[in-house]
Amino acid sequence: MLGKKKQILFSPLEQGKALKKAVSFVPKEIIEQIKNSKLRGCGGAGFPTGLKWELAYNAPGKQKYIICNADEGEPGTFKDRLLITDHAKKILEGMCLSGYAVGATEGIIYLRAEYRYLRPNLIKAIDEMTADSLLGKNILGKNFSFNVNIHLGAGAYVCGEETALLESLEGKRGEARNKPPFPTEKGYLKCPTVVNNVETLCYVPYIVINGPDWFKEFGTIESKGSKLFSISGDVKKPGVYELEMGTSVKEVLDLVQAENTKAVQVGGASGVCIAEKDFDKPLAFESLPPGGSIIVFNKSRDMLHILKNFMEFFVEESCGQCTPCRDGTFRLLEGVKLMEQGRCSIHYLKVLRDLAQTMQIASKCGLGQLAPNSFLSIVDNFKGEILARDRAPESVHA
Ligand SMILES: Cc1cc2nc3c(=O)[nH]c(=O)nc-3n(C[C@H](O)[C@H](O)[C@H](O)COP(=O)(O)O)c2cc1C
Ligand code: SF4
Among 60, 94, 308, 354, which one is least packed by beta carbons within 10 Å? Predict the structure, then answer.
């Protein structure tokens, strides 16, 4: 669907053109192009893609891997599904370009279990590109080979976290690893590994063809280019939109014809929930980190009910490895239930806020570090509504 001003991923791409151009450069030059473009990862954290590739390029090791993170488990996010369905060859070309730049000959797509039905589509694209000498042995007649395999996940949200993903790929229980070492140094089978999101990889062929300056023309100072957003909730026109970085929440709401909006959840359950006072903010890493989804809630919605839903999700998905997340998510959910009953005192609410902040710094991986975001933002931005509940005569944890 059309977004504001600039479309990149939804504009046509001549298949193989980027690869043909890339092989006339040495790998380091491709890394420089991606670095100069200021492309940032679309999987959530916004890590600079060119820098990630450079780290993997510089890491010693004969065998290196490119992994496409297609786990897409964040509630409300369905943009990667659209890319896998309609733009599979862009993903594969992006992986192949990454392999060429980094010195990897093997690529793996880690595909969300629920997207199993898209596997044949990917296999067909791999076969066709191999027949066109854009994948496989001696690509375009050059001394460069790159194979892509597909690995199905098993339905755990934490396996989208890159190190838990690597454990899962290696056939182990999906639990986050300690960092460092980072995957670029010791990733899949202890080899240097690049893990990139589906969408990130799709921008790569466009940048190689059009150049980094073209990509940098769009967006904001810290967030270049465009971004896909899965938009759902109380809107007349839900769907996947490509929007220029820096588009404001207000512009998005107009675009999708949202009415009587009370709250907007930016970045899925791990993201933040903003109120009307912040609708002018731009979707950009330096302001509202964009993530991959926007969920709109109108004035009929109960914010505590929404918060409970998110907290139940985190309790369910915590891998249980570390205490701040395992016990913290449980305690936050318990607190929300007390709030529902009007039994949470102001003092205990403060204790819960402190716990949430502790989880942000003490949890081992991003799941536990980000799980308190929705708690803190809903409690802070909708305090009036939450505290206006009928209070029981005696509050527990007074
Ligand atoms: C709990 C959790 C789930 C995640 N799920 C995904 C996911 O489904 N897809 C994804 O690309 N990144 C996901 N990430 C981020 C990855 O760890 C990693 O940062 C990303 O794949 C790197 O790619 P990028 O640099 O292209 O963004 C998740 C992170 C956390 C903490
Ligand atoms: S933060 Fe949560 S998901 Fe991550 S390692 Fe700790 S318990 Fe597991």
Answer: 60
pLDDT at 323: 98
What is the per-residue pLDDT across 326-338, written as a single tens digit (0 to 9) for each?
Answer: 999 999 999 999 9
Amino acid letter, 307: L
Laid out side by side, the sheet with 272-275 consists of 239-244, 226-233, 293-298, 261-266, 272-275
DSSP conformation letters of 190-254: GS-EEEEEHHHHHHHHHHHHH-HHHHHTSB-SSSBSEEEEEEEESBSS-EEEEEETT-BHHHHHH
- Considering only CA atoms, which of 301, 242, 22 is closest in space to residue 146? 22
* Cα torsion angle, 312, 314, 320, 323, sign: negative
pLDDT at 397: 53
Structural domains present in the chain? 17-216 (3.40.50.11540), 226-298 (3.10.20.600), 308-387 (1.20.1440.230)
Q: Which atom of ligand 1 sits closest to the CA of residue 201?
A: 26
Sheet holding 65-70, edge to edge: 147-152, 106-111, 65-70, 193-197
Residue 165: nearest ligand to its CA?
1
Cβ–ligand 2 contact at 364 (below 6 Å):
yes
pTM of the model: 0.96
Residue nearest atom 1 of ligand 1, based on CA coordinates:
367
Q: How confident is the model at residue 386 (pLDDT cuts 50, 70, 90)?
A: confident
Pair 72, 198: CB distance under 8 Å: yes
Burial class (CB in 10 A: 0-12, 13-18, 19+), 346: exposed
pLDDT in tens, 274-317: 999 999 999 999 999 999 999 999 999 999 999 999 999 999 99
- Give the model's confidence band at 387: pLDDT under 50 very low, under 70 low, under 90 confident, else very high: confident
Residue 382 Cα to chain centre, angstroms? 26
